[in-house]
Design a protein that fits this description.
globular; three-stranded antiparallel beta sheet; alpha+beta
Amino acid sequence: MVRCQKQKSRRETESLSAKLGVKAFRITGYSAKDIEHAEDGWGVALSFDDACDIGLLFKQDAIFYIINNIIYVSYCDMRRKLIKVGPFLCRVDAPKVKK
């Protein structure tokens, strides 16, 4: 079962990368207030406006955006503005890099 989930996750990531034209990677983020709450998602290297536009494409109200290990949140629509949340790396399980 774990192997099937990994294969499905890999296919989804490859599909997203192809759709966006950029390399995507899986990431799991955690709430700073409740470390039991985790949410799977994707990371991509994009400009802020492109990230918001893609958020709209995927019907997201908001996105997280990282600059120099600081995480920000922003609406995707015309209210887009970076609002500082705090440090980034302590809130995620980093992807494992294959050697």
